[in-house]
Design goal:
With about 230 residues, the chain is α/β, with parallel strands linked by helices. The chain folds into two domains: about 170 residues, Alpha-Beta Complex (2-enoyl-CoA Hydratase, Chain A, domain 1); about 50 residues, Lyase 2-enoyl-coa Hydratase, Chain  A, domain 2 (Orthogonal Bundle). Helices cover about 50% and strands about 10% of the residues. The protein has eleven helices and eight strands. The strands form two sheets. Strands 1-3-5-8 form a four-stranded parallel β-sheet, sandwiched between helices. Strands 2-4-6-7 form a four-stranded mixed β-sheet. Helix 5 crosses helix 6 and helix 9 packs antiparallel against helix 10. It is globular and about 60 Å long. The mean pLDDT is about 85. InterPro entries: ClpP/crotonase-like_dom_sf, Enoyl-CoA_hydra/iso, Enoyl-CoA_hydra_C.
Amino acid sequence: MVEAWGEFKDDEDAFVAIITGAGDRAFCSGADLSGYLPKVSGTPTYLRRRAYDGPGFGGFTRGIDVFKPIIAAINGVCFAGRMEIAAAADIRICADSARFGCLERRWNVGLGDGGTQRMPRIMGMGNALYYIITGKEFDAEEAMRVGFVNEIVKGERLMKRGVELAEIICEFPQGAIRVDKEALIRGVGTPLTEGLRLESMLFNTLLATRDFHEGPKAFVEKRKPKFDDE
């Protein structure tokens, strides 16, 4: 998954990523606990620390900054660490049969893939604390109500809808989308003055591109713009 993330980031022809589970039963049910303990307990402390600080085991949702749009198409169960993967996406759609929950709570396993940081940003501190502490399993309607998912669709339409959203995004020039996403991601938690400074800095990088001038120029000339997606 780390390699796939890196390839997507570096591929100039890849504009949007869709993450989903194989088949229709599960987005992912979480880590295999039968092999989890030996990997953690049997590893020297410094190696374990390096694994958790980097994008490798236990942390492949951090350490790789991807400012291209990412869609999670959630089918079936989305539990534990794989709920954290869904939280790392920008847009989350789910099948009406999807189920969610921080079920690692039952086995004294903490959230190590960004859940404690991303879930409050998505669904609010109160909701995040409630689901993380109680480990409650919840359905698609509840996920929609608390703001964890953006859309619910019939299971057979899940990937079709994911592709539809991706195609809509791909029709847009990509520069402004990536700049705005970066400003959002990097600006969260900063004082307003710093966030505004970051936004201005990133906006100014967009000003230097040909594509920025092509959009308004095409509008004035009443023609379809031709973007390079620099």
